[in-house]
Amino acid sequence: MTPLKNRFAQFEKSTRGFWGVQKKTLFSWLLFDFANTSFSVMMVTFAFPLYFKNVICEGEPRGDALWGASLGISMLIVAVISPVLGAAADFSGRRKRFLFVFTLFSVVATALLGLTGPGMVVIAVVLFVVANAGFEGGLVFYDAYLPEIASERSIGRVSGYGFAMGYLGALAILLLLFPLLKEGIVIENMQNVTLSFFLVALFFAVFAAPLFFVLRDEKKTAVNMHFVGRSIREVKYTISHIMSYPDLARFLLAFFFYNDAILTIIGFSSIYAQNTLGFTSGELIIFFMVVQTTAIFGSVIFGVITDKIGPKRTIVLTLIIWCVVIMMAIATTDKLFFYYTGLLAGMSMGSSKAASRSMMARLTPPKHVTEFFGFYDGTFGKASAIAGPVIFGVISSLAGDQRIALASLLLFFVIGLFLILGVRSRAAYANDAAMVDGGDYL
Question: Looking at the record's lineage, which domain of life comes first (predicted)?
Fold first, then answer.
């Protein structure tokens, strides 16, 4: 063997295990998105909102208010605890353990929702709050792995792949549960509906499991009360100094507004389609399948676009698309046109989230990655989900027309668009960051 071939053989041997580990880690990370989006589409967007109003609340008008309150409470919990737990995960190096606990709470509570029935309002609200807080809280730790898994050049693409896998999981669970739900989410079909909740929990658990076998914690130190106090002090420090990073602060504020509108659309889409446009349960399943399909392609395509033109320009493009979606949804009077609206919404839904996650990853200092993602996913992301549903519900109630409430969301997108336009390029931002904390952002 020639010296050149010998060196190449040694290099290949030494890197074979590394690339195998990297591929397994990436695939298991993507598979987790495949798993948890089944919860999102079934328990937040489609089946459980209708089950909660039609069956648990027995069709009473208070169902809308209680549903909005359940969403708001679960998001408020995550908004409050995420920054502290994010800092705790950074200090302890036990990010995987936090992710596992939140995932376990979500899976178990989802399964227990399969035992709820008519009149069990309080129990259903408590279980849903636990399930959704577990799901949303886990995303803080899950998203924080992105800068470690992807290189800077591929971070937009990998983020897009993650959302694409998520929507593929949503499509898979809808196909799987179609036979159980096609007869309607009503009391007469309650047994099949509750069985579907058990299957969602099982789906979530099975496909999330590989991530916990592949990932390894750093195990820097044990968690104790002194440690928690240190985490709280670190969060206070972050809040007091976040304005030292004007572009990060501006991006987070922009994200607060446009994510508010996106989450409100997701949370009330099934109720809007059924109440305003008269969709049946079977038609809704088909509609959401269409939305998930375009979301898959949108996430992948815009993930590549993000790496080409940058996350800021991609976010601006998707926000313009969202404004068009809102105007189309308001103007539509028939179901067929609403399908076209869903196609466009699906394309922009995953892409806007993927580009936002890429933007946050690029602006986040490495040593505070989980804590800052706690602010991104928790404080700003979840707090926006508190305001949106409440405002939508109040306007809908006062105006007596969901179309007017939907039109109000345009304001949130416009504000978000205005703010994101003022965020400077990463190069300019990095110079400011270097002066603040010695170059953590470089």
Answer: Bacteria
Distance CA 278, CA 196 (A): 23
Cβ contact 82:140 at 8 Å: yes
Which residue has better confidence, 126 or 377?
Answer: 126
Six-digit token string for 18: 């590394």
- pLDDT, position 238: 66
DSSP secondary structure string for all residues of 194-222? HHHHHHHHHHHHHHHHHHHHH------S-
For 27-218+225-437, CATH gives 1.20.1250.20
Q: Residue 413 is encoded by which pair of tokens?
A: 């997108």
Residue type, 68: G
Q: Are 23 and 202 in contact (CB under 8 A)?
A: no
pTM: 0.75
Indicate the DSSP class of residue 103: H
Contact present, 362 and 155 (Cβ < 8 Å): yes
Q: Is 379 left (phi over 0), alpha (psi -120 to 50) or beta?
A: alpha
What would the mean pLDDT of 120-149 be, rounded to a whole number? 87
CB-based contacts of 295, cutoff 8 Å, min separation 6: 163, 164, 167, 170, 346, 347, 349, 350
Strand, coil or helix: what is 161?
Answer: helix
Domain ranges of the chain: 27-218+225-437
Q: What's the average model confidence in pLDDT over 356-382?
A: 72
Residue 284 in 3-state DSSP?
Answer: helix
Contacting residues for 385 by C-beta, under 8 A, at least 6 apart: 71, 72, 75, 259, 260, 263, 264, 267
Q: DSSP secondary structure string, 123-139?
A: HHHHHHHHHHHHHHHHH
Pair 50, 179: CB distance under 8 Å: no
Contact 413, 323 (CB under 8 A): yes
